[in-house]
Amino acid sequence: MSWMRRWRFLRMCHINFGLFLFVFTGVIGFWYANFIPPWWNYDEPRHFWLAWTLTRGEITFEDKKRVIRSLLEYNWFYHYPRNMWPSEDDIERFPGVLAATWRPPNRLLYWRIITLPWYIIPASWDVAWQLRVLRWMSVLFFIATAWALWKAAQEIFGKDHPLSRVVPLFAV
Fold first, then answer.
1. Distance CA 112, CA 118 (A)
2. Dmax (CA) of the chain
3. Which runs of consecutive H residues, i.e. helices, occur in 91-126?
4. Each residue of 79-103: pLDDT tens digit?
5. 59 φ/ψ angles, rounded to the nearest 5 degrees
6. Mapping DSSP to helix (H, G, I), strand (E, B) and coil, where does residue 75 land?
């Protein structure tokens, strides 16, 4: 294969890899945002609460009841003994951070960006759907991170070097 043909082939692979990376991270993100049940991660109530506090101010007693109802609905307390599960009216027994003292997150810029859609959607939406909006914003950050890694690897190793393709896939 001549150098000219090889160069065209590598350029074609380069363009197709960008599309592949976008589709690959998009499929993973779509799966994460839609098929993993809400509150599946142990830290999601804290993330939800931080997002709520940044966009809507202090969380009220009624909002805490809605969150606990959603947590109970999606079985978030499965790893606690049954006698520790709170009722909707028993906020003080809630083992998560909804009853804790708020402190500003250490990645405030990230949280400000990720909660932008919450300024548009009403607070009356189902709590699980509000969490899915946060997840979709995380998916956008995930895709952007993979793309930035790909571009950085191209700058470091060169556009046609195999490591420029391996680095973003390894990080994903």
1. 10
2. 75
3. 108-114
4. 777 777 776 666 665 655 454 445 5
5. -80, 130
6. coil
Which one-letter amino acid corresponds to residue 28?
I
Dihedral pair phi/psi, residue 37, rounded to 5°: -60, 150
How far apart CA 27 and CA 51 sit, in angstroms, is 25
Tell me the pLDDT of the chain (172 aa) as tens digits.
Answer: 554 555 565 555 556 788 888 889 999 999 988 888 888 877 788 788 888 888 887 777 788 778 888 888 888 777 777 777 776 666 665 655 454 445 566 677 888 888 889 888 888 888 889 889 989 998 999 999 999 999 999 999 888 788 888 888 888 7
For helices 44-56 and 61-73, angle between their N-to-C axes, nearest 10 degrees: 150
Q: Are 132 and 35 in contact (CB under 8 A)?
A: no
Q: What angle do CA 15, 17, 22 make, to 5 degrees?
A: 105
Q: Give, for 24, the enclosing helix (H) or strand (E).
A: helix 3-34
Cβ neighbourhood burial of 153 (10 Å; 0-12, 13-18, 19+):
buried
Nearest to 79 by CA among 51, 35, 41: 41
